[in-house]
Structures are given as C-alpha cells and as structure tokens.
Amino acid sequence: MRKSFFxxxxxxxxxxNVTLYGCLFAGGDFVHxxxxxxxxxxxxxxxxxxxxxxxxxxxxxxYFWLRALEHRFPGRSPGMIFxxxxxxxxxxxxxxxxxFYTGVSFLEGKEDIFADWREKFFxxxxxxxxxxxxxxxxxxxxxxxxxxxxxxxCSAFLWATxxxxxxxxxxxxxxxxxxxxxxxxxxxxxxSTDEGK
Length: 197
Description:
- It comes from Carassius auratus (Goldfish).
- By secondary structure, the chain is mainly α.
- The protein is built from 9 helices and no strands.
C-alpha cells in the first residue's frame, strides 16, 4: 500500500496529497470525539464539517502554498529553510487557523461565525508556534516536494485533534489540552456536575 501511495503521489500529486490531508484532518476530529472527549455518540456532522474545511481549503491551500514557497525559495540551504519557516508561520499558519474556526462555525450555521475565532485564535496561534515550526522544518528538510502536503497531513492529524478539542472544550492553549489529557475522567466528572446544576 505504501508503494502504491508513493507511486500515485508522483502521478497524481494534487489529488493524493489533498485527499490524504483531508482524511487525516477529519481523523483528528474522530480521535478527539472518541478518545479525548469520550463521547457516547459520535457527532458525525462535526466530523463532516471538519472534513469539508480540510478538503476544500486546508489541503488545497497547503498543496499550492508549499509549491509556491519552494518555487520562490528553492533548496534546502539553512537560509532558504529559514525563509520558508518565517513565511509559513507568519502568513499560512494564521490564515489556516482562521479558516478552520470560521469555516466550521459557518458550516454549523452559527449566527456569529467569528465568535470562536475571537475567543481562541491568539492562544491557538501561540500554541501552533510550539508545534508547527518543528514539523515544517522536518518537512522542508526531509520530504520531497510531491510529499510535503501528505507529511503536513500526518502532522495535522495531531493538530486537528487539538483544534477540535480547543474549539469544543478548550481555550486554544496547550496547557488546557494537556490538563484534559492527563485527567480526562476528572474533566468529564466536572462537566457532568456543571450540567446537572
């Protein structure tokens, strides 16, 4: 299967990369709901909305963004990698985070699609700065261009799990997510007690 994906990724790089990215991003929501939030029932609409945002924007944007970066700053020299990282974290990361929060809110039919964004964007962006520069460094150094979006999709699986947690239960900070992961039963008991009031 791995050889098959690599072969297809060379022949059909856009479709292969974007599809894998979207599936992994939606898988992050699935893991959030099943493992972290420990829900009794899956909210398939939310997973669908996350998948739509991931397939329609995130995967496509990243596919073309990574190619534009490589075209403008070719190679793997330290200077070129540094330029790619700076641009990625100052332009692409805030844009992708903003589209996630507003896109999922729009698909859910929320009246104020910017509410989650206003509340959680800055914390989420700061948390992303602890994760994405390292993942993108590995991406720019180790991955051939035709697999970079797929590598981002693998990295985005964990990030999507965090984003979905943050959007539904957290405040966009890594501290809140880690507290939840370390003591999920305690968090669930506290939530059920609050709902019972």
